[in-house]
Amino acid sequence: MTDARQNAGADDERVMSRTHDTEHGYAIEVSGLTKTYGAHTAVEDVSFAVRPGVITGFLGPNGAGKSTTMRMMVGLTPPSAGWCTVLGLGYRRLPNPGRHVGVLLDASAQHPGRTGREALTLAATVMGVDLDRVDEILDLVALTPAEARRRTGTYSLGMRQRLGVGQALLGDPRVLILDEPANGLDPAGIHWMRGLLRGFADDGGSVLLSSHLLREVEVIADELVVIGRGRIVAQGAKQELLASGGTLVRGVDDQRLATALTDAGIAFTSAADGGYLTQAPADQVAGAASAAGVVLVELRPAEGAGLEDMFLRLTADHSRENSQERARR
Ligand SMILES: Nc1ncnc2c1ncn2[C@@H]1O[C@H](COP(=O)(O)OP(=O)(O)OP(=O)(O)O)[C@@H](O)[C@H]1O
Ligand SMILES: [Mg+2]
């Protein structure tokens, strides 16, 4: 941690004058975040940055460490090691944080006896936000006046997510940290969320959102940080990650194709939907197959297959079926 980060003086002024003008132009910086629970390491040496104007997807299977990382980012869970700054400061050092960072960690963590409108009004009062903003927000998250009068205990999951996103946006923050905001939304709801976050980012805002579904972040995010078993396994621009899948090849007889590739010294892995994935260029793969007299039925850039394959492997590593199998062994 630098001296500047440790220096508590004039935090208010510094952050109030700030939108995203941190040292490196990042809105969020996460460095070496680690969390251990007894002998179990939930999050290990996680580092990434979130840029303004960009939606960053934090992708990983169930139990990968997304929520734990986000809880550490907003000061709810003390890290075992590492640090995170939001707009250049530790979250707990942000004055009136809701005015700078909108956070949605658990949409069901509302008081079930309060109406949606009451929840927003209370949050607005705590943050010192004009109460007119409550109606604006209800409108923005498409909760009808009748719905806003209902107790949140009667809300569907999708309605809770809308209210939670509304609460995160209430203080007109520059940064959003949202844990699984699309969870429980129907396709129209996901489309709505995408438009909302895109507009927020286009206005220069910074968004970090987590998901355990590749397809979901694929449609919403510009950049991806992929986490598996507590560690970052890939990060970068979505387009690049999707494009970096190498070559997908499928033969009439995959067994013979595998032998041909091995004989030609080409490393490969089995693709999720059959055939093989390799980093070798297509002409080299075609050459190897042809030399061995193997007929190909498919040879193309793998596109998203590499990322999907990696994600499926991560998911398989985590799946209950697998752990039960491991436990039996
Ligand atoms: N308070 C805690 N005590 C012990 N272990 C914990 C605690 N909180 C989280 N863990 C463990 O840390 C790991 C990561 O959990 P986390 O909730 O961060 O995963 P996640 O990526 O958010 O998963 P999901 O997609 O299911 O929300 C899991 O193995 C979990 O059991
Ligand atoms: Mg989680």
UniProtKB/TrEMBL annotation:
- Segments carrying the region annotation (Disordered) are 1-23
The record ties this protein, via InterPro entries, to: AAA+_ATPase, ABC_transporter-like_ATP-bd, ABC_transporter-like_CS, P-loop_NTPase
Annotated GO molecular function terms are: ATP binding; ATP hydrolysis activity
Q: List the keywords (alphabetical).
A: ATP-binding, Nucleotide-binding, Transport
Mark out the compositionally biased spans (Basic and acidic residues): 11-23
Q: Which residues form the ABC transporter domain?
A: 28-254
Q: Which PANTHER family match?
A: ABC TRANSPORTER, ATP-BINDING PROTEIN
Which family is it part of? Belongs to the ABC transporter superfamily.
Protein name as catalogued? ABC-2 type transport system ATP-binding protein
The record lists the organism as Actinoallomurus bryophytorum
